[in-house]
Amino acid sequence: MERRVCPMTILLFIAALIAAFCSSSIAAQSSSFEDNFNIMWSQDHFKTSEDGQIWSLSLDKETGCGFQTKQRYRFGWFSMKLKLVGGDSAGVVTAYYMCTENGAGPERDELDFEFLGNRTGQPYLIQSNVYKNGTGGREMRHMLWFDPTEEFHTYSILWNNHQIVFFVDSVPIRVFKNADYANDFFPNEKPMYLFSSIWNADDWATRGGLEKTDWKNAPFVSSYKDFSVDGCQWEDPYPACVSTTTKNWWDQYEAWHLSDEQKMDYAWVQRNLVIYDYCKDTKRYPTLPVECSLSPWD
């Protein structure tokens, strides 16, 4: 099915990017990897193009690779272009996420994009998840309306105190709302780094682990470019921008809700691309988590 994009949505997205340059918070849009990131492990599995504009992580039978931002942020707009592993990528996961710490700490907050590899000719799946104080289990899975291995596409996270929105090419695919009362599901207290990594997850990633990684196709490579962030950069003990976030476009009233045009795109995604939603899994959750009662349309 052909994906329909509202012209107004495109205009709003462009306007948001322009506004980012006028923000009083920290805005970074640098093509230099070294300006923004550190390699977490396996330096020899990281490469850059000759002009330094494209960065690549590779996975082989020995190891994968990962990087993280040098800075932490609490709230903002975070965006990167990715081109995923092509061909037979079953069992391979490219993760692009925000997290309060390096490693799966028991009290971590986390916002996940995970791209689940596939057998050649089968659709790539994108899984998202939200953790608060080490508790996740809030998975959603979507199909994409394009082949993410053919060219770069933009994956973004909007995070403010009212909602978290996962975007693909300016289209909102997931909305995670905060409540107007204290709760244990919405991560809004801890600053986060942004990470990406590639790793082998053939025990679960493709068809629940039935499809294993074919190492004859290694190395598996995911590529990145055009990192952009406009957010409240954390500085201990407490940055001034945390208490003045409403001065920034990403935490003004218009960013607390989907626009009418975004709602149309979101509805299209809900009708056509969602293949799993934990809020509808009554076998897994006989009593649905409390956040499932919050409307993404408000």
From TrEMBL:
Active site (catalytic residues): E110 (nucleophile), E110 (proton donor), E114 (proton donor)
Residue ranges occupied by any GH16 domain in the UniProt entry: 24-224
Keywords linked to the UniProt accession: Apoplast, Cell wall, Cell wall biogenesis/degradation, Disulfide bond, Glycoprotein, Glycosidase, Hydrolase, Secreted, Signal, Transferase
Single GO biological process annotation from the record: cell wall biogenesis
Domain of life the protein comes from: Eukaryota
Gene Ontology MF terms: hydrolase activity, hydrolyzing O-glycosyl compounds; xyloglucan:xyloglucosyl transferase activity
GO CC terms in record: apoplast
Cross-referenced CDD domains: GH16_XET
Compartment(s): Secreted, Cell wall; Secreted, Extracellular space, Apoplast
The protein's enzyme class: transferase
UniProt keyword annotation of Transferase present: yes
PANTHER family membership: XYLOGLUCAN ENDOTRANSGLUCOSYLASE/HYDROLASE PROTEIN 8-RELATED
UniProt similarity note: Belongs to the glycosyl hydrolase 16 family.
Protein name in the entry: Xyloglucan endotransglucosylase/hydrolase
